[in-house]
Design a protein that fits this description.
Largest sheet: 7 strands, parallel
Strand order of the largest sheet: 11-12-10-13-14-9-15
Structural class: alpha/beta
Number of strands: 21
Helix content: 25-40%
CATH class of the domain at 240-431: Alpha Beta
Number of helices: 23
Radius of gyration: 32 Å
Strand content: 15-25%
Distance between the termini: 39 Å
Shape: globular
């Protein structure tokens, strides 16, 4: 490229290489349409004309600096003016007597019809026949994402310059894979997507490049997984302690729990570190599965570190694990809690227990990542709700041991194609069945736009539940009228022209205390701006039954377990995501009483926001909702590292839509690695992985 163009592309998009600009695919394609006579053109329509230049003139703009080139053309039935701003150089070719094909949208200026910045092609030697003119008119026009300084046609021209001279000697996708998949070679696909002569060309090219994206990413993932299996870690095998723990459980494990336990034990008995993601609905029994793995690691003298995203959750995990393990196991494993708000003496004691090996189970928050925290023999790292942590934070903890086993827990259901793409180098286990006796939660949409009188009924329903001896969660999307809750993922509704002010915790608490039906009830607030000690005190009181209603932000979204809580009221439910609403309602109905979730919304029917709320109320299937949530949100940067640069982003592949493509790519990647672990015969593929996945993305794949 010329220096001016190169600098413009770098400034506008951050592009510095040929691959960067060739990867700037058209966002859509336009067509010029059928040939039209000037006399028949309606204003506002796209028109394609075969005409002759009659006159050319240039004038200065009146309101600002610059010039306007005006070219009058005719086809014998009428005339129209072509208008170009600050492009006087076009007069060199658009001279009187020249004929060509002109295409654009017809407008009106001072009573005369005009085409502003039309697309055109001049006849150099002789006029093409009618057939050739029709072909030109039907030829797709690539339209690119542009900026104020770079128009779509300028980008197209720059890409054309590159395509004319670039050479791609080696194919990224081997011929033995391209042939059965019927995909184009790399250069042919680039040529067809940027300079198609008909729609079927760019469609075939797009499919080919989408498959290549999937193939490159899956190859990177399987290669990372292969390299990970070359590491050596301490083998941890099930023994008497594990068997005794399982035999003492007061309930029967579900088939899914048993299956996942076997998978974990097989992994930990191998000579390489386990990297397993266990996903399961709220209440599906992930805790007991993790506890079993902890006991197994402890039996061989190893330690487990459990990293939780908040102090509230860390405290609850500590209590929950102690209850699950039972007195004998607790006495033997000596679990300790390590959080930032611990008193100095308690923190020193916990640090000593971890460093000396006196404790086999250390539960904590980000405090575990501190340089002062050391372990005698870290054998297992358990990450709870891993999306709450940065990649670097997880890696810091793993580095405190000698390739410890990794177990990631999530209650956020992950569609299979997402798991294959984002977590493709982790083994994924799913606990789909719920323990017997779990009563399904009933969900209702309280549509205040249609029935404003239902608002009072919500609080009457809350009072009835409290009177019956049970407890209630109320969730609001903001803390105060001016400060949004940072832990929340509040969404705006594009269909709602003037969004209603968010309901807040600080306004809701006094409002509820003032309601006659809740008079005398203990109602407390819980949100992220409270101190850790205050938050834990509220949750302890709520768990003990001393508080009737907790009004909270999404700080209670994950992991809070209060068996006596039976009703969840979500205010402004339309301001939350689908998966988030599903997580919130999972906080109730965890005991012997039926759970009820009331989704209160002002969103109008048939808006996107209302559809989210209606979807949550319609099903308890978290995987179905997760797929819907992903479609509504779009997956964004599937590699999870937005800060790592534009090259890490997938251009065409969509995990919500391209499951079959990802499946096929995964199979080919695994077969390729099995046949050639070194990939010596696939240099182009190796280079493409390095190019597409920059340093940040490579580290992300390695650490996850």
């Amino acid at each position: 490229m010329g220096d001016r163009s190169a600098k413009a592309l770098a400034k506008a998009f951050g592009y510095t290489t040929v691959a960067d600009i060739l990867g700037h695919y058209p966002r859509r394609y336009a067509t010029r349409g059928e040939l039209t006579s000037i006399a028949d053109i309606p204003v506002g329509e796209q028109a394609t004309l075969v005409a002759e230049v009659v006159s050319v003139s240039t004038r200065s703009m009146r309101q600002k600096s610059g010039n306007v080139l005006e070219v009058v053309i005719t086809d014998g039935t009428g005339g129209v003016t072509l208008t170009f701003f600050n492009q006087a150089w076009r007069a060199q070719n658009l001279t009187p007597g020249v004929r060509g094909i002109f295409a654009g949208k017809i407008g009106v200026y001072r009573g005369n019809r005009q085409l502003a910045h039309p697309d055109y092609e001049l006849f150099v030697d002789e006029d093409p026949g009618e057939h050739a003119s029709q072909e030109w008119a039907k030829k797709p026009i690539p339209l690119y994402s542009a900026t104020s300084t770079l128009a779509s046609w300028q980008i197209a021209k720059a890409i054309g310059v590159v395509l004319d001279v670039v050479e791609i000697p080696d194919e990224v996708v081997p011929e033995g894979i391209r042939t059965p998949e019927k995909t184009l070679g790399y250069y042919a696909a680039l040529e067809s997507i940027h300079r198609p002569t008909e729609a079927s060309q760019w469609q075939h090219a797009r499919d080919s490049l989408r498959f290549q994206e999937a193939f490159v990413l899956q190859c990177a993932l399987v290669k990372r997984r292969h390299q990970q299996r070359l590491l050596r870690s301490t083998q941890r095998t099930q023994g008497d302690k594990t068997n005794a723990f399982l035999a003492a459980l007061p309930f029967t494990l579900t088939p899914d729990q048993v299956s996942v336990m076997h998978q974990i034990h097989e992994d930990m008995a191998a000579p390489h570190p386990m990297t397993r993601l266990v996903q399961g609905e709220v209440g599906s029994g992930k805790t007991v599965v993790a506890a079993t793995a902890m006991v197994t690691v402890s039996q061989s003298g190893g330690q487990t570190a459990l990293l939780a995203p908040t102090e509230v959750l860390a405290n609850q995990h500590f209590r929950s694990l102690a209850a699950t393990l039972g007195p004998d196991m607790v006495a033997w494993m000596n679990p300790v809690l390590l959080t930032g708000s611990l008193p100095a003496a308690a923190k020193k004691k916990a640090l000593l227990a971890a460093a000396s090996g006196a404790s086999h189970l250390i539960v904590g928050t980000h405090a575990l990542l501190s340089d002062t925290v050391q372990f005698a023999d870290l054998g297992l790292v358990v990450i709870d709700e891993q999306h709450r942590f940065g990649v670097d934070q997880r890696e810091v903890l793993r580095q405190k041991g000698r390739h410890p086993h990794l177990l990631v827990l999530t209650a956020t259901p992950i569609p299979r194609t997402v798991a294959m793409t984002v977590f493709g180098d982790l083994d994924v286990s799913t606990i789909a069945t719920m323990p017997e006796g779990r009563i399904p939660i009933t969900s209702h949409v309280v549509a205040l736009a249609d029935h404003p009188e239902w608002y009072s009924r919500v609080w009457q329903r809350v009072a009835e539940e409290v009177t019956a001896g049970r407890q209630v969660f109320v969730v609001a999307p903001a803390i105060t009228p001016s400060v949004m809750e940072e832990e929340s993922d509040v969404e705006s509704d594009p269909d709602e022209p003037e969004a209603k002010a968010l309901t807040t915790v600080e306004e809701t608490v006094p409002m509820l205390r003032a309601r006659p039906e809740l008079s005398g009830r203990k109602i407390n607030a819980l949100h992220g701006r409270m101190s850790s000690a205050d938050k834990d005190e509220v949750m302890r009181s709520f768990y003990a039954g001393e508080v009737d209603v907790v009004v909270a932000t999404t700080v209670i979204e994950v992991g809070i377990d209060v068996p006596n809580a039976s009703v969840m009221v979500v205010l402004d439910a339309d301001r939350f995501g689908v998966s988030q609403l599903h997580q919130l309602r999972g906080r109730v109905g965890r005991g012997s009483h039926p759970g009820t979730c009331l989704l209160v919304t002002h969103a109008e029917e048939n808006t996107t926001a209302r559809k989210r709320v209606d979807a949550v109320a319609s099903t308890l299937d978290g995987f179905e909702l997760a797929a819907l949530d992903l479609e509504l949100r779009s997956e964004g940067d599937v590699l999870g590292v937005r800060q790592s640069g534009v090259r890490s982003r997938l251009k065409l592949l969509r995990v919500t839509r391209d499951g079959e493509v990802i499946d096929a790519a995964r199979s080919y990647a695994e077969a390729l690695l099995e046949g050639d672990p070194s990939w010596e015969g696939h240099l182009a593929l190796t280079l493409e992985i390095a190019r597409r996945l920059d340093e940040g993305s490579q580290e992300y794949l390695e650490k996850t």
